[in-house]
Amino acid sequence: VALMKSAQLGGTVLAQIFLAGGxxxxxxxxLYCQATEGNAVRFVKQKWKPMDRHLRLHRQKQGLPPIFxxxxxxxxxxxxxxxxxxxxxxxxxxxxxxxxxxxxMITVQRQVQDDLAKWQMNEAGDPEAQAxxxxxxxxxxxxxxxxxxxxxxxxxxxxxxxxxxTQEHWHVPCPSCGVxxxxxxxxxxxxxxxxxxxxxxxxxxxxxERIEERDRDWxxxxxxxxxx
Length: 228
Prior knowledge:
228 residues; alpha/beta; seven-stranded mixed β-sheet; three-stranded antiparallel β-sheet; 6 helices
């Protein structure tokens, strides 16, 4: 699955749910790859570990065991760049696309390729191809989640991944005429008056009526993905 999105939209949260939920319901070995190893370390410390701590408390209240082994000093089962499942086989390796060594000698059923547009060639060549190869042996059981904010279109990895797929857009019905359509930023820009930003709105591509913030919940509840 390729998710091409705007910045700060919650893509990394989806990736965390994808891996942690999968590790709970269908244990396996997985990979979470950032653009660099430094980014991977920051991600683990600032996002993954806090999520894991919150998840532990939530599951404890429900009488459920933790999904992952607790981090302990001198414990290889739960170091900064590797977290093992508490019960039974399975674990997540965190790595950086700039390190070919971190993308070798592992086989994973699920993986996340985060911030894909920022991945650069490493000493062994194309890191995206190297990461994809880590799941090739799993066949149809493999699941790869590619996500990023796009950069320059002519050589952007997430743009290429998106265009190579079904190119699905979120369509919502107009509250006035009911015709489904995607909401594009250019549509709002055309209706944005800098002198009165509080009046910002979309207009329906079909009937021309206003679509406003108060319509969002109603529209999203009736929305769906449409392949272009």
